[in-house]
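Worked example 2:
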Amino acid sequence: MKPLFLCLAILLLSFSEIHAARYWADPEGSNTVPCLSISGTSEPAVRGSFARAVACATAIGDEVFVRPGIYSNNATVTNPASGITIRGSDPTPGNWPVLQPTGSNVRGIHFNRISRSN
């Protein structure tokens, strides 16, 4: 029984690693670009807005890489998936992304947790 359990555990771990995706956000990114277009282990030519990239990350282990720049648009991220990671794409502190929304109704980035836990 133990060998069968071990094989199933390895299969499940492999399956989750295969399906984890990396999505890329850019200050000039699109809110409507298809998720497949902004995913990849290396930076794709097309990138999404911050909100779009987070919306595409729906599975545990998915990552959102936020490119350097100033993100000046308000964004509401509704019900982000549990177990996703959001990080700057460049580890150099001078190149970290800046969330700086503008306008008369400045709210910034708002994570609206409707039904997720954790």
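The longest helix spans residues 2-19. The beta strands are 22-30, 63-66, 70-71, 75-78, 85-88, 98-99, 109-112.
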